[in-house]
# Entry
Amino acid sequence: MPPVNLLPSAISELFAQASVTGKITLADRYGLMAAMFSETLSEEERNCIDRLFHALRKGRVRVVDELSTLL
# Structure
């Protein structure tokens, strides 16, 4: 699998955006899933991703069919 190269602070930006809007794009979701396989993520970034997936499962954040600007 090719390496995942995230933009600096992309995960924290996405977390902040999802917290405000209550939504992420499908592309963001797939980007988060791919990022989980990255060995370069900090513990803080992993925690953000875990919290986003938890919010998705609980229905506090939903996946929308819009263009992504972050990941």
